[in-house]
Specification:
Two copies of one chain form a homodimer. Helices cover 39% and strands 13% of the residues of chain A. Chain A has 363 residues and is an alpha/beta fold. In chain A, the strands form two sheets. The first copy, chain A, has an eight-stranded parallel beta sheet. Chain A folds into two domains: 246 residues, Aldolase class I (TIM Barrel), CATH 3.20.20; 106 residues, no CATH class. Chain A has 14 helices and eleven strands.
């Protein structure tokens, strides 16, 4: 097709028709959702940061049983956690009253529930063997030899950045494109160092800055919910829009009933960045867990993903007690505009909306 | 002209050609800047929140000596300050070491250095007499009878909103259009209640939400620095873009040399919301004053604008000592893209950039 001609350098590499990436959302973006998105012409994504090489390979196989299109596999590239038994023990006690309220007990101890990609050789070897079309990095970039190995295998690499400094590190690191993750975005903020000062750049400001300053293509993420939002970021010079929250309510996603109900309610109007659930800042629907977090100092929270061990246990206790408010209900600021449509139908709607984008005056 | 036809309902009321509003910035947006902006086809604005009716009338006259085009006069509609002598005395002591570092003394006491428009009958009477084309409200809206009096006098009214809830209050209050002030925006955040929880909505998410949910036109503000940014917010459905930081470096602005130098430096990459300078959250270039504010609890700061009495004194002491880092260097997240051009030239450039906005596929 001749549409989106100026976006082709990136879209051709992704081997996808539309400037739309269904965002990786570990725990929510199922292989079924990714396959539906890819089959509809977007780039479907899965997040494998919370599993190991075997689990990831199974998810990729599940996708491939449903689609022969491009797939984006997202991995977490945080610095591996340093355990701190005293802090972790204190944290368990801090959470004990929350568990008690749910007639449950906290875990006796917390562990690093999954490995960072930077330390996971098996994951790299698996990816080099199965060669998804795209691998994307969050929380940083892996060692240069991992990136070059992936690229040599024909894999396109993307990296999230929340600032120009992070984007320049990713560009120098050799990635094919940078995802400008604005402050609006749901889920984990891609900040490389969770303890550094965060300029909290909004999607509009960050996308435009990166487009002006980088040589590689930029993908905009954060607060984009419809064709108008996609058209807007394309005007900013982005080569594609990455949308997560827009896909949460799709029937193909793994979002649970409590999450879907919250997203469809007035609760969608209030999201907040919290660190208490996982140990890293992430944007979540304001709920009981984020309210608990308001009085917590960052230094008291175990490192990511050790804190997430407790967070997942508390969520499980909540679900058992019929209380969905302890869930990791990751969502962006555009949440009130989420639509509950099958992914293919949603993407068809988005394309129609882009085609009806405003056109101003002679060019 | 036939350009921007879909934007005409708002632009016709503003009696302006371009979907560009040079934002009111009290202390920076001089009558000369506003006149240059209006003469170039945009809507020029002055902020009169920090002066009284006589001062405002003089500024309007100054504008009118330079332009017969539309003018937007911005007023502050905060709840009038409640004095708290103990808190103010403690605050003076808290600032004393900063003054000492500059070989200066803090003021002996702090006063409410200017009135809120909601309590300033003379300002209302003056505006009803001189009838600027547009009056805009920040920090809330004035009583219904003030809005209806202005509208009956033929004045178009605008109000800033940072959330759907604030926007709906403004719409129900009868304003002609709402300025969606995103988190990226420089200067004072328009939050109606500075002590309430703030969802910190980015420009992209907020603008789209308000366009979808309001009946009145929406003007987008925050992080918009060039024609691509304007084209982006028009795609979101905004009827115009309001730009402040883009105009700070214009020679017609009242920005001082220290501010201009900071804006043109790497310092522009770091802005932060601070409450210590004025008593209300405002986005400022990260500087010595905002660094001081990092350790301060909101409850310790006198109410706006009482705290600003101390803040302005500290800035003056800094300037006398050759230290510009205590200035109220209000700037948005787009600051690295600021251009030092005369306002007319900047607006001409913006129009060219909009005309070269991307066009995707058939409509």
């Amino acid at each position: 097709m001749t549409e989106f001609a100026s976006l082709r350098p990136l879209l051709d590499r992704l081997q996808t028709n539309l400037p739309i990436i269904q965002a990786p959302m570990a725990g929510t973006s199922s292989p079924a959702l990714a396959a539906a998105a890819s089959n509809a012409g977007a780039l479907g994504s899965i997040g494998v940061g919370a599993t190991n090489a075997a689990g990831a390979q199974k998810m990729i196989a599940d996708f491939r049983a449903r689609s022969d299109r491009s797939l984006n596999v997202n991995v977490f590239c945080h610095e591996p956690a340093r355990t701190d038994p005293a802090r972790e023990a204190t944290w368990i006690e801090r959470l004990r009253p929350e568990f008690r309220r749910l007639n449950a007990q906290p875990p006796a101890q917390l562990t690093e529930i999954y490995q960072s990609f930077v330390a996971d050789k098996q994951m790299l070897e698996m990816l080099l063997a199965v060669k998804p079309r795209v691998v994307s990095f969050h929380f940083g970039i892996p060692p240069a030899q991992s990136i070059s190995a992936l690229r040599s295998a024909g894999v396109v690499t993307l990296a999230s950045a929340t600032s120009l400094a992070e984007a320049q590190i990713a560009e120098r690191g050799g990635v094919d494109a940078v995802v400008a993750q604005g402050y609006e975005a749901g889920g984990h903020r891609g900040v490389f160092d969770p303890d550094a000062a965060d300029d909290r750049l909004g999607t509009l400001a960050l996308t435009r800055l990166l487009v002006r300053r980088l040589a590689v293509p930029v993908i905009a993420a954060g607060g984009i919910m419809d064709g108008a939002g996609i058209a807007a970021v394309l005007q900013l010079g982005a080569s594609a829009a990455q949308m997560g929250t827009a896909f949460i309510a799709c029937p193909e996603s793994d979002a649970d009933a409590g999450f879907r109900a919250a997203l469809a309610s007035d609760a969608a109007h209030h999201t907040t960045l919290t660190r208490v659930i996982s140990g890293r800042p992430a944007r979540c629907l304001a709920n009981k867990f984020t309210a608990f977090g308001l009085g917590v100092e960052a230094a008291d929270i175990p490192q990511y993903p050790i804190a997430y061990d407790a967070g997942k246990a508390l969520n499980a206790a909540g679900k058992s007690a019929g209380e969905p408010g302890y869930g990791a209900q990751w969502a962006g600021q555009g949440a009130p505009l989420a639509r509950s449509l099958p992914a293919a139908e949603l993407i068809g709607t988005l394309v129609n909306e882009i085609r009806h984008a405003r056109h101003f005056g002679p060019i």
